[in-house]
Design goal:
Rossmann fold, 5-stranded parallel beta sheet, about 50% helix, binds zinc ion
Length: about 350
C-alpha cells in the first residue's frame, strides 16, 4: 500500500494522489493555517453582547478537549455569558462526565443535558450501524438538532463550536450526516416509523438550505468556530491550559481524541475496515504537516493504536446495541457510497449554490 513519505496518509484516502517522490497531494497543497483574526471574533462577540440577552453564547460541551477549551475561552478570556449544553449520545465516558462537572462548577455557567429516549436512540444506532457501518452520522444529526433546540429554547444568539483546524480532512466519502439519506435508510429498514424519526431528529424537515437561510436572517443562531479565528495553542498546550483552569483530565494517552465517547475507538476500527483509513491517521498526518510531531512519532502513535484490531470494549458496544459478533461481519461488509442516491434534494441544491456563493455559509 502506498503511504505518503511526508505524512502517514495512505492511498485509501479519497481523492489522494502521490507525486514521483511519494509525497501525497494533501502535503503538496498544504498551506499554513491562517486564522481569520481575533478582531473579527471579538466583533462577533460584541454583536452578541449588544443583543442584551440572558446568554451571549451557547457552548456545546462534550467534556473532550476542544469543547472544554472553547468554554474556557468563552468564559475566562472573552467574558461571555454562557450556557453550556451536553447531548448525551448514550456512550459518554465517566471521564467526560467528570470533566463536564468540573468545568461547569468552576466556570459557574448554567448547563443542561439533552437526552433522547434511550431505547429509540439504540434502535436507530443499531439500524444505521447494520445498514451503513456507521453510527457517528446519527449521533451528529441528533447532536446538531439538540444544539439548535437548546439555542432556541434559551434564546442564545451564537453557538460556539470546538471544531478544530486539526480535525480537517477526517471525513468519510459517505454523506453520513445527510438527513435524506438518514431517513431513507431508517424507513427502508421497515423497523421504524415516522413518529420515531421525528422524535429523534426533532427537525426532520430541516435541510442545509433552510438552515443557512434561517441563520442568515437571524432566526437561528450564528455558528462560530473560534479555533479558526485565533492562533491556537498546540494540542498538548491546550490540554495543559484546561487542566490548570478547569481541572480537565485526559485518559493518560498522548494525543488522545474524542475521549468523550466510549464508542469512538470502535467506530474508528469499523471505518478503517470499510474505508482503509480512519480519524486518527488523518489527525496524526495533520499534526505532522503542522510540525507538531515528527513523522516517525506519528507512525509510532498510529502503531500503538492497533487500528486493525477491534478495541477492548467492542463487545460491550455491540451488546449495548443488542448486536453480536456475527452482526459485526454485516457491519464490516458495508460497501461505501451505497446510499448516495438518497441524499436530501435540498442539501444537494445547497451544496451546488455554496460552490458559487460563500455567503450562504
Ligand atoms: Zn502526505
Amino acid at each position: 500500500m502506498k503511504i505518503c513519505k511526508r505524512c502517514i496518509l495512505n492511498e485509501n484516502y479519497p481523492g489522494i494522489t502521490f507525486n514521483d517522490d511519494s509525497i501525497c497531494s494533501l502535503c503538496i497543497s498544504k498551506t499554513d493555517f491562517i486564522p481569520k483574526g481575533e478582531e473579527k471574533l471579538i466583533r462577533i462577540f460584541e454583536k452578541a453582547r449588544k443583543r442584551n440577552k440572558k446568554y451571549d453564547a451557547l457552548v456545546p460541551l462534550s467534556g473532550g478537549k476542544d469543547s472544554t477549551y472553547i468554554l474556557h475561552l468563552a468564559v475566562n478570556i472573552y467574558n461571555l455569558k454562557v450556557i453550556a449544553m451536553t447531548y448525551d449520545n448514550g456512550f459518554m465516558s465517566e471521564l467526560s462526565l467528570d470533566n463536564i462537572k468540573n468545568a461547569v462548577d468552576i466556570t459557574k455557567v448554567d448547563h443542561v443535558f439533552y437526552k433522547p429516549d434511550q431505547e429509540l436512540q439504540k434502535k436507530i444506532y443499531r439500524i444505521m450501524l447494520l445498514k451503513t457501518g456507521d453510527i457517528c452520522g446519527a449521533c451528529d444529526i441528533a447532536t446538531r438538532a439538540c444544539i439548535l433546540k437548546a439555542s432556541l429554547e434559551y434564546d442564545v444568539p451564537i453557538v460556539l463550536y470546538g471544531t478544530s483546524p486539526l480535525e480537517d480532512n477526517s471525513f468519510v466519502p459517505d454523506s453520513i450526516e445527510d438527513i435524506g439519506r438518514f431517513k431513507y435508510v431508517l424507513i427502508s429498514s421497515g423497523e421504524i416509523n415516522d413518529k420515531e424519526i421525528k422524535d429523534f431528529t426533532i427537525y426532520p424537515w430541516l435541510n442545509d438550505l433552510i438552515l443557512s437561510f434561517n441563520k442568515l436572517v437571524g432566526i437561528y443562531p450564528r455558528e462560530v468556530r473560534p479555533l479558526f479565528y485565533i492562533k491556537n495553542p498546540s494540542d498538548k498546550e491546550m490540554g495543559e491550559i484546561i487542566s490548570k483552569e478547569l481541572k480537565w483530565r485526559d485518559d493518560g494517552r498522548e494525543y488522545s481524541r474524542h475521549l468523550d465517547c466510549i464508542a469512538e475507538p470502535f467506530t474508528n476500527y469499523v471505518r478503517n475496515r470499510i474505508y482503509g483509513y480512519e480519524r486518527r491517521i488523518c489527525q496524526y498526518s495533520n499534526m505532522v504537516r503542522n510540525n507538531e510531531i515528527s513523522r516517525a512519532h506519528a507512525l509510532e502513535l498510529y502503531e500503538d493504536d492497533k487500528i486493525d484490531q477491534p478495541p477492548e470494549n467492542y463487545i460491550e458496544i455491540l451488546n449495548y446495541l443488542g448486536l453480536n459478533e456475527k452482526d459485526l461481519d454485516q457491519i464490516l461488509s458495508y460497501k461505501p457510497l451505497m446510499y448516495e442516491d438518497y441524499l436530501s434534494r435540498m442539501n444537494r441544491i445547497y451544496q451546488w449554490l455554496a460552490k458559487f456563493k460563500r455567503f450562504l455559509q
